[in-house]
UniProtKB/TrEMBL annotation, chain A:
Occurrences of domain RNA polymerase sigma factor 70 region 4 type (ranges): 129-181
Protein name: RNA polymerase sigma factor
Single GO MF annotation: DNA binding
GO biological process: DNA-templated transcription initiation; response to stress
Keyword line: DNA-binding, Sigma factor, Transcription, Transcription regulation
Pfam families recorded: Sigma70_r2, Sigma70_r4_2
PROSITE patterns in the cross-refs: SIGMA70_ECF
Signal sequence annotation: none
Disordered: annotated span: 97-118
Family to which the UniProt record says this protein belongs: Belongs to the sigma-70 factor family. ECF subfamily.
Residue intervals of the RNA polymerase sigma-70 region domain: 25-90
SUPFAM superfamilies: Sigma2 domain of RNA polymerase sigma factors (SSF88946), Sigma3 and sigma4 domains of RNA polymerase sigma factors (SSF88659)
TrEMBL record, chain B:
Alphabetized InterPro entries for the sequence: Anti_sigma_zinc_sf, Znf_put
Putative zinc-finger domain location: 3-37
Family statement: Belongs to the zinc-associated anti-sigma factor (ZAS) superfamily. Anti-sigma-W factor family.
Source superkingdom: Bacteria
Name listed for the protein in its UniProt record: Anti-sigma-W factor RsiW
Organism from which the protein derives: Paenibacillus methanolicus
C-alpha cells in the first residue's frame, strides 16, 4: 500500500525530523485556521485552536493510526477543540445586558478586540456578510457539520469519520442546518 | 408526490445522493408545485452561497505574513526534542492488553503466595487426636508408648516420633525424626520446596471442598 504524503511525513516527524513536521503544519495550518475561525468567529481563539491542534498532533504522532486518513485525524482534533471552546462559552451572556461588575460596560466591550477596523468588514459583499451571520448563529452541533461540509468540501462520510458519528446523523444535521440557513436567508434572497 | 417527500429528496439531491430515477420524479413534482419550486430555488441559492464563502471574509483567511507568524509560533511551542522512542515498552503494553493483564495477575498471585510462604513461621500442629502429643518449643514429640489415631500435620516445627501413629505424618518446613520404636502406619511426607508446599495447599483445599 502506498502511504500518503502525510503518513510519511508523520513517520519522519516521529523520528525527530522537525522539518517534516513543519511540512505538515504548512499543509494544514491555513485550512484549520479558516475552519476554526468559522466555528468561533474570533481570530485569537481560532489561532489558539490551530496552535493547540498541532501541539496535540505532535505529542500523539505515535498514536496516529495509518488506516485513518491523516486529514480526518487532524480535523477531528481541531473540531473537538473548537466544540470544547464553544461549550465553555456557555452560559452565554447577552451582549446587550449591562455587566454588573463593570458599570457602564456592556457585553460588546468585553469581547476581545479583533484588531480589525470596521471598514474591512464593509469590503465584504452584502451576501457574504449575510451568510457569515447565518452560519455564526447556527447551534454548535450544526455548525461543525456545516463548516466541514461547505468550507472543507467534505463528503457526508468524511464528516462522519471526523466527528465520529454515523452518516445518517450527519445527513439529518446537514438537512436541518441547510433549512436553518434557508430560513435565515429567506428574506434576503 | 407528497411535498414532504419532495423536501427530503431536495436535500438528498443537494447532497448528491438522489438516485437518477428519483431525480426525474422530483423534477415532475417541482414543475407541478410552485411552493416546492421556490423552496428548491432558495435551497440551491443557500447552498451556492454557503460554498461561496470559501476564501471570503477578512479575518477568516490569513495573509502570508500572518500565516508565517502562526507557523513560527506553532513550531516554537513544540517540545524541544522528541526522546526518540522512549515509550516502546508502554506502546507494547498498550497493544497487548490481555498479555499485560495475565502478567499482572500472575505477578500478584506469585506475590501473595510468597508472602504466605514467608509469613508462616509459627508452629502449627493439626490432627484428629492431639491428646498425647507433647509440644516443647518448636518440637513436637509423640512419646514412646503413646498412640496417635489418625493423621498428624506439623508446620514449621520438628517432629520427633517415638511412639505410634495410625495415619499419615506430614511435616512442612521442618524435620522428621523417627526413633526405632516409632511406628507410622500411613505415609510420611516432608515438604520444604515452595512448589511442593503450593501443591500440598492446593490438594488440601480441594480435598476440603470434596468433604
Amino acid at each position: 500500500m502506498v502511504k500518503s504524503l502525510e503518513a510519511r511525513l508523520a513517520r519522519l516527524a516521529l523520528k525527530g525530523d522537525q522539518s517534516a513536521f513543519a511540512e505538515i503544519v504548512s499543509l494544514y495550518q491555513d485550512k484549520l485556521y479558516h475552519m476554526a475561525y468559522r466555528m468561533l468567529y474570533n481570530r485569537q481563539e481560532a489561532e489558539d485552536v490551530v496552535q493547540d491542534t498541532f501541539l496535540r498532533v505532535y505529542k500523539n504522532l505515535d498514536r496516529y493510526d495509518d488506516t485513518m486518513k491523516f486529514s480526518t485525524w487532524i480535523y477531528r482534533i481541531a473540531t473537538n477543540l473548537c466544540i470544547d471552546r464553544l461549550r465553555k462559552r456557555k452560559p452565554s451572556y447577552s451582549l446587550d445586558a449591562e455587566s454588573s461588575e463593570h458599570e457602564g460596560l456592556d457585553g460588546y466591550s468585553m469581547i476581545p478586540s479583533d484588531n480589525r477596523t470596521p471598514e474591512s468588514e464593509t469590503l465584504l459583499s452584502e451576501t457574504q456578510r449575510i451568510i457569515h451571520q447565518a452560519i455564526e448563529t447556527l447551534p454548535a452541533k450544526y455548525k461543525s457539520v456545516m463548516v466541514l461540509r461547505y468550507l472543507q468540501d467534505m463528503s457526508l462520510q468524511e464528516i462522519g469519520d471526523v466527528l465520529d458519528m454515523p452518516v445518517t446523523t450527519i445527513k439529518t444535521r446537514v438537512h436541518r442546518g441547510r433549512e436553518f440557513l434557508r430560513k435565515k436567508l429567506e428574506h434576503k434572497l | 408526490m407528497n411535498c414532504n417527500v419532495a423536501i427530503v429528496w431536495m436535500h438528498d439531491y443537494l447532497d448528491g445522493e438522489l438516485p437518477r430515477d428519483d431525480m426525474a420524479a422530483l423534477k415532475t413534482h417541482l414543475i407541478a408545485c410552485p411552493s416546492c419550486r421556490s423552496r428548491f430555488e432558495q435551497l440551491q441559492q443557500t447552498e451556492a452561497m454557503a460554498f461561496g464563502m470559501v476564501g471570503s471574509g477578512m479575518d477568516a483567511v490569513l495573509d502570508e505574513k500572518q500565516s508565517a507568524l502562526l507557523t513560527e509560533r506553532i513550531m516554537s511551542q513544540l517540545p524541544a526534542k522528541r526522546a526518540g522512542k522512549p515509550n516502546a515498552f508502554a506502546a507494547w503494553i498498550r497493544k497487548h492488553p490481555a498479555v499485560t493483564v495475565a502478567a499482572v495477575f500472575a505477578f500478584v498471585m506469585l506475590g501473595s503466595f510468597t508472602t504466605m510462604w514467608e509469613q508462616n513461621t509459627q508452629l502449627s500442629v493439626s490432627g484428629t487426636d492431639l491428646a498425647q502429643v507433647v509440644i516443647e518449643g518448636n518440637t513436637v514429640t509423640i512419646p514412646e508408648g503413646a498412640r496417635v489415631k489418625g493423621d498428624l500435620t506439623i508446620e514449621n516445627g520438628k517432629a520427633n516420633v517415638l511412639g505410634d501413629v495410625d495415619g499419615n505424618v506430614t511435616v512442612i518446613d521442618g524435620q522428621l525424626y523417627q526413633a526405632s520404636t516409632a511406628h507410622i502406619a500411613g505415609q510420611t511426607k516432608e515438604i520444604d520446596q515452595a512448589l511442593d508446599w503450593f501443591w500440598y495447599k492446593v490438594t488440601q483445599s480441594i480435598s476440603k471442598l470434596a468433604y
